Amino acid sequence: MSESGTAGTRGRFFVTTPIYYLNGQPHIGHAYTSIAADVLARWKRLSGHDVFFLTGTDEHGQKVEQAAVAAGLSPQEFTDRLAGDFRSMAERIGISFDDFIRTTEERHKRSCAALWEKLAAGGHIYLGHYEGWYAVRDEAFYGPDEIEDRNGQKVAIASGAPVEWTREPSYFFRLSDWTDRLLAFYEANPDFMAPASTRREVVSFVRAGLQDLSISRTSFKWGVPVPGDEAHVMYVWLDALTNYITAAGYPDTGADRWGFWPADVHMVGKEITRFHCVYWPAFLMAAGLEPPKRVYANGWLTIEGQKMSKSLGNGLDPLLLAEEFGLDPLRYYLLREVPFGNDGDFSRRAVVGRLNSELANDLGNLAQRSLSLIQRNCEGRLPALTAPTEADRELLGPLEALPAAVDEAISRQAFGEALERIWTVVRLGNSWIDAQKPWSLKKTDPVRMEAVLRSLHTLLRGLATILQPFMPGTMAAMLDQLAVGEGARGLSDLATPLADGTALPPPAPLFRKIDEAA
Ligand code: MSP
Fold first, then answer.
1. Residue 243 CA: which ligand 1 atom is closest?
2. What angle do CA 371, 374, 377 make, to 5 degrees?
3. Probe residue for ligand 1, chosen from 224, 272, 304, 347 as the CB with the greatest number of ligand atoms within 8 Å
4. How far apart are the two ends of the chain, measured CA to CA in Å?
5. Three-state DSSP class for 264?
6. How large is the angle between the packed helices 415-436 and 390-411, nearest 10 degrees?
7. 31 CA → ligand 1 middle, Å
8. Is the CB–ligand 1 distance for residue 32 below 6 Å?
9. 165-178 mean pLDDT
């Protein structure tokens, strides 16, 4: 990967997406979390980390089994087909994953069995009977105070998913032992969960006291068998969460890859925080393993103001949207429009608005204007670097401060803020070029004209480098136009100026505007 020229010098970084259920086609909601995680992974590579970026598919459980039956296929055939769709969607929306895990893989079954045995050996598991409410859609158990009656149907209050009364033999994890230890862990690790709303919700759930958790099922077969008792399959969430350590090599904790554990950030949607912030650290601590460093929960997207749902058929296909608007404008929009962590809406009008004004006008025109002037007035060669004047410093000072400011925002997963900080400098570039008027300097002060154009080139190179994680394809094209070699696109390369007189290819528009009325 071109951005990883300096990989490894700043330490390891492990970031994950949720693994997606294979019960339908991938939609824009899945793409949203994955794109955010991808920006984080690419940013860390760009700034010199050795990154391990994991995504994949969650293939077991009753919900997937039911979807396979409805499609007239065996669960294995069904998941083989759909896993390919998720993987190719991830590739086509630019998800730069290092590993794609499927929970039906042997390495994962081995890891689940090893974790189970470790928990059992530590006395954290016992055999009993589960009796209570289960929602297949959420693959979650609910207490009597967490359900209600809606139109004669019992549903989970939190998600609206129908629940069924279930009674079967089951193994339990002694989650009730962990109430105080989890609260102490949250207290000692204030960055463990974000945003603040997630933290509040999880803490109050745990404070209310935890009950032992049913971690096996006997009423269906599509899962990882419980070691030593094959009448049971593991509860799909125990299986699914384990994917994160499987990919890091568990149970081979001596192998090099294990050096990535604990994960730096699990990126998840807000509806699955209980699993990631309560069950997962409890399982890990019980097994003597370190919990992840951070779980970040994004909000939910609606489509033109409406909840995305199968029955409405509005679960938008990210590939069609990428065709319509361009992949990079779509990625930009998703992270720019809604403060990350909040719920937000996907609206075509808003995508077009941002594409036309912020991408095509603010950034695209700045590049086009500057590069055309270099083509026309400097014979397409990069003007020589000279000592910066005060005016140059007004432009280049804020640019130099930008990588640290963007890093700070991205380390909080404040992707919209990072883009806002970058756009402050883009807008500064536009007002600066208008004030410097390089087009009118050709006759009056050609030396100053060259210095102004060189500063603009420095600005554009800095912006394109910093923006690569957000819009990888378009920024690669922009760096090509700026004649920045593929091996010189990391943040640390910004300290090394391009050679004076470097030939620049003729510029071409970076963004395609869309007619707002269409
Ligand atoms: N398989 C579990 C996760 C296991 S992780 C160990 C699961 N899968 S899922 O297919 O339902 O995907 C859920 C994730 O997709 C959410 O957590 C969220 O990240 C993303 N989203 C799905 N719909 C979404 C929206 N409408 N809006 C935003 N994100 C959404 O849960």
1. 6
2. 145
3. 272
4. 38
5. coil
6. 170
7. 9
8. yes
9. 96
Q: What's the rounded Cα separation, in Å, for the pair 370 and 430? A: 10
- The verdict on the CB of residue 18 being under 6 Å from ligand 1 is yes
Q: Quote the tokens at residue 112.
A: 């689940």
Ligand 1 center from residue 177 Cα (angstroms): 29
The number of residues in the chain equals 518
pLDDT tens readout for residues 315-360:
689 999 999 999 999 999 999 998 999 999 999 999 999 999 999 9
Question: In this structure, what token pair is assigned to residue 487?
Answer: 């091996």
Please report the pLDDT score of residue 23 as a whole number. Answer: 84
Q: Is the CB of 35 under 6 A from ligand 1?
A: no
Q: How far is CA 428 from CA 173, 353, 362, 396, in A?
A: 57, 20, 10, 10
Task: Verify whether ligand 1 is closer than 6 Å to residue 20 (CB atom).
Answer: yes
CA 322 to chain centre: 17
> pLDDT confidence of 384, banded at 50, 70, 90?
very high
Question: Whose structure tokens read 């890859």?
Answer: 257
Q: Say what the pTM is.
A: 0.96
Q: Which of 15, 21, 30 to mutate to test the pocket of ligand 1 (most atoms within 8 A of CB)?
A: 30
| Count of beta carbons in the 10 Å neighbourhood of residue 195 | 19
Closest by Cα among 464, 463, 444, 445 to 389: 445
75-132 pLDDT, tens digit per residue, is 999 999 999 999 999 999 999 999 999 999 999 999 999 999 999 999 999 999 999 9
Dihedral, CA atoms, 102, 59, 334, 485, nearest 10 degrees?
10
SS (H, E, C) 144-170: HHHEEEECCEEEECCCCCECEEEEEEE
- Strand, coil or helix: 241: helix
Categorize the per-residue pLDDT at 305 as very low, low, confident or very high, splitting at 50, 70 and 90.
Answer: confident
Taking the C-alpha atoms of residue 393 and residue 388, their distance in angstroms, rounded to an integer, is: 6
Instruction: Pick the atom of ligand 1 nearest to 299's CA.
Output: 28
Phi, psi of 192 (to 5 degrees): -60, -40
Bridging pattern class, strands 125-135 and 164-173: antiparallel
237 lines ligand 1 (CB under 6 A): no
- What's the gap in Å between 408 CA and the centre of ligand 1? 26
What is the CA(20)–ligand 1 centre distance, in A?
6
Q: Write out the DSSP string of 333-383.
A: HHHHHS-BTB-EEE-HHHHHHHIIIIIIIIIIIHHHHHHHHHHHHSTTBPP
State the CB neighbour count (10 A cutoff) for residue 301: 22
Average pLDDT of the chain to the nearest whole number: 95
The CATH number fitting domain 350-495, selected from 1.10.730.10, 3.40.50.2000, 1.10.3660.10, 3.40.720.10: 1.10.730.10
User: Could you count the other beta carbons within 10 Å of the beta carbon of residue 127?
Assistant: 12
pLDDT (tens digit per residue) in 470-493: 999 999 999 999 999 999 999 999
Which residue has 């700026």 as its token pair?
482
